[in-house]
Amino acid sequence: MTQMRVLLTGATGFIGSHTWLNLLACGFQVVGVDDFSNSSPAVLDRLHQLAGTEPAFIRADVCDASAMAAVFSRERFDAVIHFAALKAVGESTEKPLAYYANNIGGLLTLTQAMAGHECKTLVFSSSATVYGKPESLPIREDAALSSTNPYGATKLMGETILRDLGHADAGWAVALLRYFNPVGAHESGLIGEDPRGTPNNLMPFVAQVAAGKRERLKVFGHDYATPDGTGVRDYIHVLDLAAGHVDALNYLLDTRQSITANLGTGRGHSVLDVVHAFERASGTSVPCDFVARRPGDVDASYADVTLANTVLGWEATRDLDTMCADSWRWQRMNPNGLAG
């Protein structure tokens, strides 16, 4: 049987690189595309080590229409998994034009190239930010949608574009995957989250404090309506998340039906839960300072994952202790990230 060929955008990023490995393990042929604007070419060497084969890769910007047209003219693809996007909530409020140009522009350029080459199967990296401030917990896929920042707005707009595309042309099969808080790293310690500058996410910041690279963790808010007063989120291991993308892709290829699904664990952990789990994993202390809440942060956010469990046959299997242990291994083996 001919192997299915998948184009992976944002392929050398945190989630993209882990999904690349999962796709290869499941028998897909993968061509990765990235412009290294938020990743490193060193990921390709790590993937080569882990997969045992040299990754097929094209350096290109998804916002470059001519580059995308050239990719599709050169290669035949059965499907695309689209990760390439700017993703920092705080930065998006400072640089909204950059976020709209990159996240919406890249999606339009990509789907136009796909349509021009009759490739109409797409797994889209969306986000739980499309739920805004949740009205009830756990959050189901039919919850009200809104955005509280430009990043979330680009994901919400991306979903709308893809829904409109499906309404206009029934040949499209699209999975909108709303994920919550990806953390962890590959168990080998060879690939993981490699933030540039000050981390935007909790786990790499905690890891850097545990490693002595930063003195203390700032905990934003200690008066939320949660068991310990700190914000509660649904943390999901990046390997479970990667598997969810492959299960969603198989669903699209098998059924030709579009789907919108949450990918999370279905349970919330507070900031202090994460800190204590990381202290257990690392055997070190993570000193904290409690500071004012950040604007727009909600008390708690965690997923109802019934749909993904039942329709996609997917389930997150790794717990918070495993997430922290894998993050700590990555931090220890790569104290300066992929720079060495």
Tag the structure with descriptive keywords.
41% helix; alpha/beta; Rossmann fold; 340 residues; 17% strand; globular
Could you walk me through the main structural features you see in this protein, from its secondary elements to its overall organization?
The chain is built from eleven helices and 14 strands. Helix 3 runs parallel beside helix 5, helix 5 packs parallel to helix 6 and helix 7 packs across helix 11 (320-333). The chain has a domain at 5-184 and 236-265: 3-Layer(aba) Sandwich (Rossmann fold). It is of the alpha/beta class.
Let me know the largest β-sheet: 7 strands, parallel
CATH structural class of the domain at 5-184 and 236-265: Alpha Beta
Mean pLDDT, to the nearest integer, reads 96
Termini separation: 41 Å
Query: Can you tell me the CATH architecture of the domain at 5-184 and 236-265?
Result: 3-Layer(aba) Sandwich
From the 3D structure, determine the CATH topology of the domain at 5-184 and 236-265: Rossmann fold
List how many beta strands DSSP finds: 14
Structural class: alpha/beta
Instruction: Tally the helices.
Output: 11
* Strand percent estimate: 15-25%
CATH superfamily of the domain at 5-184 and 236-265: NAD(P)-binding Rossmann-like Domain
**Uncertain segments:** none
Widest beta sheet: strand line-up: 3-2-1-4-5-6-11
The gyration radius over C-alpha positions equals 19 Å
Sum up the overall morphology in one term.
Answer: globular
- From N to C, what is the helix and strand string? EHEHEHEHHEHEEHEEEHEEHEEHH
Fraction in helix: 40-55%
Write the layout of secondary structure elements.
Elements: E1 5-9, H1 14-25, E2 29-34, H2 42-51, E3 56-59, H3 65-74, E4 79-82, H4 89-94, H5 96-116, E5 121-127, H6 150-168, E6 173-179, E7 181-183, H7 202-210, E8 217-220, E9 232-233, E10 235-237, H8 238-255, E11 259-263, E12 269-270, H9 271-282, E13 288-291, E14 300-301, H10 306-312, H11 320-333
Parallel strand pairs: 1-2, 1-4, 2-3, 4-5, 5-6, 6-11, 7-10, 8-13, 9-14
Antiparallel strand pairs: 9-12
